[in-house]
Structure formats: structure tokens, C-alpha cells
Amino acid sequence: MIPRFLYTLCWYLAAPLVGLRLAWRARHQPEYLQHVGERLGRYANPGAGPFIWLHAVSVGETRAAAPLVHALLDAHPDCRLLLTHMTPTGRATAAELFGKLAPRVLSVYLPYDFPWAVLRFIRCFRPRIGILMETELWPNLVHGCRRTGTPLVMVNARLSERSARGYRKAGPLAREAFADLTAIGAQTDGDANRLQALGARRVQVTGNIKFDSSPTPGLLELGKAFRNRFGPRPVLLAASTREGEEAPLLEALSLRCPPHVLLVLVPRHPQRFDEVARLVARSGLKLQRRSSNEPVMADTRVWLGDSMGEMYAYYAAADVALIGGSWEKLGGQNPIEAGAVGCPAIVGPHTFNFKLVCEQAIEAGAALRAKDLPHGLNLALELIETPSQRKSMSEEGRRFTALHRGATGRTLALLAPLIPKNSNRPQAHTTQPL
Predict the structure, then answer these.
(1) pLDDT digits (tens, 9 = 90+) for 28-46
(2) pTM (whole model) above 0.70
(3) Active-site residues: which are they?
């Protein structure tokens, strides 16, 4: 109780900075100044429920949740799905993926972790169950759900040793929050063991829902259209790159890569598109942008993928992919999307956020590991010059992703007994403060 009190006190002390933080982020994304009331638990009338609530922080979690969203809507035709996010890009991704499902799918911001804001949120929507994608833990939110009798489950949960060390530093605050969760569906045995060591109970290994995602026919057709724009040139994709990775990649490209090889460069965060375009310009390499929709010229060295929701198409159009986030100490991204469309993947040395998936992909022959970006570029060029190895890795990638599917069904089985059948759950408890 005392650790959570001190945690809440820190939130109150930091409250004046909340507006400043939103204004600061709005310099690059004006959407941060929209729907500000929702961040404090103030919502327009959501209409009739009942709601199943699923929290997906930003773009990655929202896309990962897609198979589960559709499965929940199919399994509970009497319910609407409430999606909550923390970023405008997460909310925009939900609109892109599920906009046609309105009004059955409603997207709002999750409030900041003030007890009164949490209470307003729960009282407004009265969800039958709350589902947290991956490892998003807010102590007052967890406590508020326990006090109001709202089951709260963490699914697709992953916890690297590095993240576990951070939670251990939080001590009793983290242990209480993990212990108060109704259940957890972990991606791997290692994730489950680390979660249990932090106090989590009722943990099951359900697998990684991302394996159940698949490209739509439209994205595959778009990938073919991209490839037609590129012509017969070899195509190297740098997928979901992060800050600090593009500059050394462009330098290595200038020094080591034949001019006929086209680099398709796709930053992970859309607010960095213009910044990365400036980096390319400073490198002296000729740049074109996907958003221009112009033919790709023969002397273009870099094609900037400045679009959202088209990653499958980029992978489908590439001969080989360098997986971003793994070249600096950022934890990497997963190679699942690459494998699903048969694109050979190369990961860097820093994959602690997706340790097992990357190791499994490498063991399966769907991916290679490089010690640094120059090494990764050399491996990519070798693959470009070796069609037989590319074909083998492509086949193994498809086989690898197919082998690990099924996590959505196991997650539904975990959730089914926890979702009340009766929509008349009592009004949120308000006689005592949260």
C-alpha cells in the first residue's frame, strides 16, 4: 500500500508536467493535443455495451492484437470491443485496421495512472474484462480493476531479463501489481519464469500472437506493385529502423554497396520520416519517397518508406531485409513478418526484446545474425548474389512462421472462463477511494 501511495504521490507532483509533455510531443505530432480529456478519464458517451476492453499501447501492439481482436468479436457477438492506446499512431493504426468494424470497435486513450482518472474510465465503460497486450503495467489501473471486480489479464506477455531487472528495482510496487492480475498468457517459458519471479500468479504459456498475423491480399498485391516500380534491381530492405541506425547504414551503403542495389529504408516511427530524409540528403545518396508515388529512377539509391501499415508489402518486395532496432542497444524487432512472406532476414547483435524468436528463426534457417551493420550489409550482399540460399531461407521463413501459429486460440481459451456472461455487472465501486 505504501509503495503505491508514494507512486501516486509522484504522479501528482508530476501533474503540471503532463500538459508540457503533450505540448512538446505535439511539435512533431499535433495529434497529441487532440482528445486530451480522455487522458484524464473524460469520455464522450460511448453508447451501449457491453464492452470487452483491450489495451494496445502503440502501433506494434495494435498490429499484434489484430488476430485477437477479430477472434474476440467472433467469439462474443453480443459485445463491443474497446481499444485503448497511449499514442496517436496507435490510435491511427486502430482506425486503419478496424475502422470498417465501427461501431463494434471503439478506440480511445487510456487515462494517465491517477486513481480518479482510472475510476472514471472504469465507470464510463464498465468492461466485462480488461486485456493488456504484452507488458504494459500501471499499478493504479491494476488496483482499480481489482477493487471494482473487473478481471484484468495480460496476454502475449514478454519480459526480457533487462526489463525484469527494471521491475525488480520497483520492488513491492511491481510485485503487488503483477500479483493482482487475474491471469497472464506469456509468450515463452522464459517470459513466464521471469513474470512469476516478480510475483505474477496464474501464468500460462500461450505463445506469440504475432505468428497468427498474415498479410492481406491487398498488401501482397501492393508488394508486387512496389517490385514492378523497382524493376530488375536487387532490393535491400532496412525495416523498422530506429534513431542512431540510419546514419551508419547510409555510410556503409556508400562505401560497400554497388550502385545498382536499391535500399528501401523504412523508419519505425512516422514522426522521424522527415528527419531520416534529411540524413539521406546529407549522405549525398539520391532519395525518392514512397509517398510521392513516382516511378523509381535507375539512379535512385534510397527509397524512403514513409507510409504506415505497409510493412508486409515492403517485405514482399525485397530480396533480403535488415531488421531494425537490433543494430543499437534497442532490443530489436521480430522477424516474423519477414518470414511470413518469405523474405530472408538479418538481425544485429541486440535482440533482447525478441531473444527466443530471433534464435528460433536463425536455428530454422530463416534468418542470419550479424555482429554489426557493415557485417550485416556484407551478408545481405552475399545473399543477393546467391539466389539458391535466398530461396532456401525464404522457404524456411514461411515454414517457421506456420509452425508457431495458434497462440490466438490458446489465448481465447485462457480468457473464456474469465469473461462474465452477464452484462449486468455492478456499477464500479465508488464508496471508497481507489
Answers:
(1) 889 999 999 999 999 999 8
(2) yes
(3) 61
